[in-house]
Specification:
This protein has 139 residues and is of the alpha+beta class. The protein is 37% helix and 28% strand. The N and C termini lie far apart (30 Å). Bound molecules: flavin mononucleotide.
Length: 139
């Protein structure tokens, strides 16, 4: 079954607290498990950048929940792709506080190759590689 992925960035709702974000992610984890979706959510206090991966049906369901959430606005899709290897298989969802410059760099990274990437082709996906590097830096 092909693995689908989506990356987007958005603006956090004003006044969103860490407790609220933790609750949001707990809720997200529940639904992601149901849909077989894994991924990571970066937050710099102002903006989000999320990477989601899983079967097409699960991704569609989860992404529609994301788009309908009032906890953020101005959702901008960075890329959609297909592959066969999960980048974050251990997280049904996990949020990581990052610096503004890190999230900015990931948002303006080259996500174009994800649109044609197949993991088996060995093509390097700059955007998701940068997200992986940021995640590694915060572990
Ligand atoms: C930045 C962000 C990331 C989210 N990620 C997921 C997710 O991975 N899976 C999911 O099912 N819902 C996700 N959601 C939806 C939330 O878990 C939650 O259901 C939603 O925020 C509740 O709707 P409300 O905020 O409009 O009350 C996300 C929402 C936001 C704002």
């Amino acid at each position: 079954m092909p693995l689908c992925s989506i990356a987007y960035c958005s603006e956090a709702a004003a006044g969103l607290t860490v407790d609220q974000l933790n609750a949001l992610v707990r809720d997200a984890m529940y639904h992601n498990r149901l849909g077989g979706v894994t991924g990571v959510l970066l937050c710099d206090g102002i903006r989000f950048l999320q990477y989601l991966e899983g079967p097409g049906g699960g991704i569609d369901l989860v992404y529609s929940r994301v788009l309908n959430s009032r906890r953020h606005s101005n959702v901008m899709e960075l890329a959609r792709g297909q592959g066969s290897v999960r980048r974050f298989p251990y997280w049904s969802m996990h949020w990581i506080p990052v610096e503004q410059h890190e999230l900015h760099a990931a948002a303006i990274a080259d996500w174009t190759s994800m649109k044609v990437n197949r993991a088996e082709s060995g093509v390097i996906v700059a955007g998701v590689e940068l997200v992986s590097a940021i995640v590694a830096n915060h572990r």
